[in-house]
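Recap quiz, item 2
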Amino acid sequence: METLLRIAIQKSGRLQEGSLDLLKESGLSFSNGKEQLKTQARNFPVEVLFLRDDDIPQYVEDKVADVGIVGENILLEKQKKNQLIRRLDFAKCRLSIAIPRAENYGGVQSLQGKNIATSYPNIVKNFLSKHNINAGIHEISGSVEIAPGIGLADAICDLVSTGGTLLSNGLKEVEVVMQSEAVIIATPQLAPEKQQILDKLLFRIEAVQKAKNNKYILLNCPNDAIDKITSVIPGMKSPTIIPLARPGWSSLHSVVDENDFWEKIDQLRGFGAEGILVVPIEKMIV
Ligand SMILES: Nc1ncnc2c1ncn2[C@@H]1O[C@H](COP(=O)(O)OP(=O)(O)OP(=O)(O)O)[C@@H](O)[C@H]1O
Ligand SMILES: O=P(O)(O)OC[C@H]1O[C@H](OP(=O)(O)OP(=O)(O)O)[C@H](O)[C@@H]1O
Ligand SMILES: [Mg+2]
């Protein structure tokens, strides 16, 4: 029987779209109907399980799933035997403590003796003991931001992204406990055949991630600017340089990192680059 790598992803919620996109952009083709809880890829030895994200670390520890995609917040909270394989650059958020907007905050000591509502009791417990704070933890599984408003707790610890939910519940963020993004987790000891499949998948994921972080750039420049421009955008090995019909000019093709893109464009223009075209890359294999 063919060995399949079992990957657990969130069935519905904030991680679902990013997880599906990542697997599909990595070339896996599978169906994901609304009621479907399990599916096998048509063109890759992978089975996908659609689960509640909170349950994924336990499934991975129990080897019911070999690999999972969860937020780092869930990985840290659940304290299961999982290894973090790779950060995935989506579902970025932070886990923060917030208090009613009207209240004064004089640093972490202000939490002494308070009651904190959260879905992350273990993370909050560690945070409080690191700061020698004695506070009560009231565990609830959702709608945490409502807790101070209904007299359930003095403060909360929950995920924040735009801050919109805090704002609309009259709360203000006072401490960032951790930053989080989606990650791939795996059982500590994968069978060699499964490890091989995972390595193959990780190679594809890397190509997808690199492509997202880079752009293909084409520009025209005077020949005497080629060296300076090459030092700014050296490309994967070196830029491609093609002479233009106009004497003394060349077309230079390279890749540029998305993160410092605009600074580099300013530098290139300063060196005399013109007619700059920037296009997305679909996959990037170094
Ligand atoms: N506002 C946000 N912005 C970015 N990422 C977020 C945000 N909220 C949550 N996340 C990330 O997405 C993960 C899933 O969030 P979601 O709200 O869908 O979970 P859930 O309600 O617990 O879902 P489930 O029903 O699967 O248990 C979180 O653990 C976190 O890592
Ligand atoms: O800072 P913001 O951009 O407002 O995002 C933060 C909110 O997003 C998440 O909930 P989600 O919307 O996923 O709903 P849920 O409570 O049903 O999980 C999280 O639990 C916060 O409540
Ligand atoms: Mg959940």
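The pocket of PRP (ligand 2) is lined by residues 14, 142, 145, 158-165 (CB under 6 Å).
The helical segments are 16-25, 56-61, 72-78, 121-130, 164-168, 192-213, 226-232, 261-270.
End of item.
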